[in-house]
Design a protein that fits this description.
The structure holds two protein chains of two kinds. Chain A is mostly helical. Chain A has helices at residues 17-25, 28-37, 51-70, 80-89, 94-122, 130-152, 157-171, 177-185, 192-221, 242-267, 297-305, 315-328, 333-336, 348-369, 381-402, 416-421; strands at residues 40-42, 239-241, 375-376, 379-380. The chains are: A mainly alpha, B alpha+beta.
Chain lengths: 426, 180
């Protein structure tokens, strides 16, 4: 397989007759050496860049534990809840397998948010990496869909009402909303057909995700990695081979990442969940305080913030538009940001808006979990949510396009090697 | 297609017989694919057993004044509330101008059976089941996103766009109601 990449000059020399024979027929060893071992990678990548490898690791963990859990799980409304309990109590090692999969979802999202935050800070979405970035946003939506359907499978109260509320989002679409809702649920309410199809899709989507990850890495290997300076690679002095430099760095990061992961699995497997999900699903009673899993809270707060009609758009459709918009807007970031300088490290004013965006995002998460009639810092939850929703969109629609007109950048280094090794005196 | 006959055809200024055949066979292929995909999508729609549960009868005689029950119809929860005189009075006293989704109390109930309020128990926002005898208007409060409904199940405050939905129903006798 050949790529249009000009940075790679093939380093592979078949040493035996067999390797030469194979290389002429299926150059898989050459491909692996060029793309996994010798791939020229900027020498200055920091630990924020290890989260890509951590995400590959997490996807693998989720697929492997998921496949074995599916050997014991029963997707039927009368048996699903008990079968999960049976996995936890009776299946050999099931307590750890189920906990790894459930906690794994949280760890997956934690790594995903760090990975995306790193991207936004260092401007990795900018040309020529738009497709790489958009595939990443697509992966984010696929992971959210997969996690949501997985959360429904244990068929507890939170599972059931999450399924009800999220499928109801589609009912807000004018005219076709109700037929779509019934198509998704396979009935007038969430019931056995819904559970069955969610199980089917929950098993399918991780493999779709894996395929998109391949495209994501392919799109990464055309321009190569961005780096903390945002200055493109200019010579071989700016790069080191992926192996052993970054394989080892990524491996260390994965090991460190596994420490909190293991702590949750072994010490507190349920702490990230919700007690109501240990009550079996009941279509007649909604738990008094329903909240989604923590990783959906910021978007849930945006959905909930729109409690007023906007012209002819009623509050429900308005909430759904803002909710969908908060994710879809990510696809346009490469064109919204007009800054010629890539890395936030050289943008003193952008930095302030960026960190405010991060705080605002965390605040949205907090508000998403707060009761609708509560108060936070002296403001009612709906008012505070509106302010934070406003800033979320303000960042993308006003700060990214217009800040570059006013901002003075710090001087960029001439090259990555100059930045790392100091100015050459020759 | 670089062989000789094709080149000759492409030089012709008008669309050719071959162009027509390409488009026609492409179109037929697209229809065939759509026809094959449709059953794969349609299987997700409610099946015959789900559609069969369209209509139920329910005996009201056991429900005391001030009491409500939640029953199940087509898999959906349905509130049946025996309203007190004070609640009916409160609902009637509200001017229509104060309502987000204007409807009189009479429109929400059946004539001669004003004490009975029968509604699908899913909040019109995103489908949670509201909690009875709570909220700022003495009716229902949805715990999910804080929608307040009054004693006639009308939306008064919060993100829900419309009043709680009334199912189709009729009184077979004074104490027997048929829903659906």
């Amino acid at each position: 397989m050949t790529t249009p990449d000009h940075n790679i000059h093939s380093t592979y020399q078949p040493t035996s007759g067999f390797e030469r024979w194979l290389d002429e027929r299926l150059p898989i060893v050459r491909f692996g050496k060029e793309h996994l071992l010798d791939f020229p990678t900027p020498r200055n990548l920091n630990y924020w860049w290890t989260f890509g490898a951590i995400l590959v690791f997490m996807l693998t963990v989720q697929i492997v534990t998921g496949i074995v859990l599916a050997m014991h799980y029963v997707p039927n409304v009368s048996l699903a809840f008990d079968s999960v309990e049976q996995i936890r109590r009776d299946v050999n090692g099931g307590r750890i397998l189920q906990a790894t999969h459930a906690v794994g979802a949280s760890m997956f999202f934690f790594a995903l948010y760090i990975h995306m935050g790193r991207n936004l800070y260092f401007g990795s979405y900018k040309a020529p990496r738009e497709i790489l970035y958009m595939l990443g946003v697509l992966l984010f939506t696929l992971v959210m869909a997969t996690a949501f359907m997985g959360y429904v499978l244990p068929w507890g109260q939170m599972s059931f009402w999450a399924a009800t509320v999220i499928t109801n989002i589609f009912a807000a679409i004018p005219v076709v909303g109700q037929p779509i809702l019934e198509l998704l649920r396979g009935g007038f309410a969430v019931d056995n057909p819904t559970l069955n199809r969610f199980f089917s899709l929950h098993y399918l989507l991780p493999f779709v995700i894996a395929a998109v990850v391949v495209l994501h890495i392919w799109a990464l290997h055309v321009p190569g990695n961005n780096n903390p300076t945002g200055v493109e690679v200019k010579s071989s002095r700016d790069t080191v081979a992926f192996h052993p430099y970054y394989t080892m760095k990524d491996l260390l990061a994965i090991v460190v990442f596994c420490i909190p992961f293991a702590w949750f699995v072994f010490m507190a497997p349920d702490i990230l969940g919700h007690p109501d999900n240990y009550v079996m699903a009941n279509s007649q009673v909604t738990p008094t305080h329903i909240v989604p899993e923590w990783y959906f809270l910021p978007f849930y707060a945006i959905l909930r913030a729109i409690d007023f009609n906007i012209l002819f758009i009623d509050s429900r459709l308005g909430g759904v538009i803002f909710f969908a918009g908060s994710i879809l807007i990510l696809f346009f970031v490469p064109w919204l940001d007009r800054s010629p300088v890539r890395s936030g490290g050289y943008r003193p004013v952008f930095k302030l808006f960026y960190w405010l965006f991060v705080v605002n995002f965390l605040m949205l998460a907090y508000l998403g979990a707060a009761p609708a009639d509560g108060t936070v810092l002296g403001l009612s939850v709906p008012t505070f949510s509106k302010i934070c929703t406003f800033y979320y969109f303000f960042y993308f629609l006003i700060v990214l396009p217009f800040l570059p007109r006013f901002e003075t950048y710090r001087p960029l280094p001439a090259s990555i090697s100059e930045n790392v090794l100091g100015r050459t005196h020759s | 297609m670089a062989n000789q006959p094709d080149l000759a055809l492409q030089e012709s200024p008008h669309s050719t017989r071959r162009d027509f055949l390409y488009v026609a066979s492409g179109a037929v292929g697209a229809v065939a694919v759509a026809g094959a995909v449709w059953p794969l999508i349609n299987q997700m729609n409610p099946d015959a057993s789900v559609r069969a549960l369209a209509s139920i009868e329910f005996d009201l005689s056991a429900i005391e004044e001030g009491q409500s029950v939640t029953i199940k119809w087509r898999g959906l929860p349905v509130f049946v509330r025996h309203r007190t005189a004070a609640e009916i009075e409160e609902a009637r006293a509200v001017p229509l101008s104060e309502l987000k989704d204007p409807a009189t109390d009479a429109e929400r109930t059946k004539e001669g059976h004003e004490q009975w309020l029968i509604m699908i128990a899913n909040c019109t926002h995103l489908g949670c089941v509201p909690v009875g005898e709570s909220g700022d208007y003495d009716g229902w409060l949805c715990p999910c996103h804080g929608s307040h409904y009054d004693t006639a199940g009308r939306i008064r405050k919060g993100p829900a766009p419309t009043n709680l939905v009334l199912p189709e129903y009729e009184f077979v006798s004074d104490t027997l109601v048929q829903i659906g």
